[in-house]
Amino acid sequence: MSKTTEEAIYRGKILDLTRETHSMPDGREAHFEIIHHPGGAAALPILQNGQLLLIRQFRPAIEDYIYEIPAGRLEVGETAANCIERELEEEVGYHPNQLESLGYVYSSVGFCNERIHLFIATELKQTATAHEADEFIEPIVVTLDTALEMVSTGTITDAKTQIVLLRYALLSKNK
């Protein structure tokens, strides 16, 4: 499949929206509206005592609070590791001395190319937070069992958080 045309509909601070024509594998042409996003990074911070640090954040897009792991958008020229180091300090006031990659996920491939790099953050050193003006974040400390129960009951509905918790639980089980 290859892109044959692209028309910019919107160029923004966080994302761009284009109308595109693609040649499909069988030769047909199809039209799509695609959101282009620079990607992001997210991490599960693990405290010295083994407990997990989640956040409860107000998200205007859903007009509600959501439980999730710290995450942020990649800046131009920034690596995923540098991005999540910055975000962990800003959102929860910790600098990770150790990051373990858990791969990546695509947030919603039907209309968006956002790739979120996933990490486990350990050996945390406390720093100051630096919330942005449009953020309302509360830290929440839980055990892995509690976090998995929150996934099971639908309390944690954020996809990247569910994936990281499940991958971390599988890693922990195999150690």
Could you describe the 3D structure shown?
It is built from three helices and ten strands; from the N terminus they run βββββββαβββαα. The chain is α+β, with helices and mostly antiparallel strands and 175 residues long. It folds into two domains: 2-36, no CATH class; 40-104 and 115-174, Nucleoside Triphosphate Pyrophosphohydrolase. Strands 7-4-9-8 form a four-stranded mixed sheet, sandwiched between helices. It has a three-stranded antiparallel sheet with strand order 1-2-3, with no helix packed on it. A three-stranded antiparallel sheet has the order 6-5-10. α2 (144-152) crosses α3 (159-174). The longest helix is centred in the last third of the chain and has 16 residues, at 159-174. It is globular and about 55 Å long.
Core attributes:
3 helices; 45% strand; globular; 175 residues; 3-stranded antiparallel β-sheet; 22% helix; Nucleoside Triphosphate Pyrophosphohydrolase; alpha+beta; 2 domains
Write a concise synopsis of the structure shown.
With 175 residues, this protein is an alpha+beta fold. It contains 3 helices and 10 strands; from the N terminus they run E-E-E-E-E-E-E-H-E-E-E-H-H. The protein folds into 2 domains: 35 residues, no CATH class; 125 residues, Alpha-Beta Complex (Nucleoside Triphosphate Pyrophosphohydrolase).
